[in-house]
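quick one before i forget lol
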Amino acid sequence: MARSRPLHRRPEARRLSGTHANLTELDARVRAIESLLVAKGYVDPAALDALIETYEHRVGPHNGARVVARAWTDPAFLDWLRRDATAAIASMGYSGRQGEHMVALENTPQTHHLVVCTLCSCYPWPVLGLPPVWYKSAPYRSRAVIDPRGVLADFGVSLPDATAISVHDSTAELRYLVIPMRPAGTDGWDSDRLAKLVTRDSMIGTGLALPVQALGGAAGAPDAASGAPDAATGAPR
């Protein structure tokens, strides 16, 4: 049987990602709707700016990366995360809408966890921010269930045959945060440094934590939690 095309090469993914022209048209429509709502008094511009500020700078994958890094360095916190992820995550200040009911999934050499929302795009906003385009796409939502190894391959992840892949369907009632395996060679690292190795995709399950060589101590090293590794795989953000 011929192997299906990678997600980022499918026409559906290109349509979802959009061309520059399509994005410009969409931007114009959004601005027109925003102007109309503001003019009619339905939307407070200050409140809208505050919302944008929140999701651009205050919430996002960097929050989840801090949770993962603490789990790697604090056995008591990891145990709490396993028992009550919602409370453990909230103790770090990450809670609220779309994060009311959380479950932490710990990757091991025996089991790799992959998260998908087959119905829509349920996603843990407080720790991962807004979902990437590909997470909401029909190809990902369907293939993650029926061909998880193929999906992982599309993202550049190849696991040993002995590693089982467990797919979890995120819902409005329950959202997941994957705790990737800690990279080798990080003994003695503090949580701030470790957090730089945690990518957004690794907390969804479509990626792994970065190896220590990815930082290299060089200026301009990629901001792992921002989802920058997608550029290497070509997967749409």
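fyi Confidence is low (pLDDT under 50) at residues 1-5, 8-22, 217-223, 226-237.
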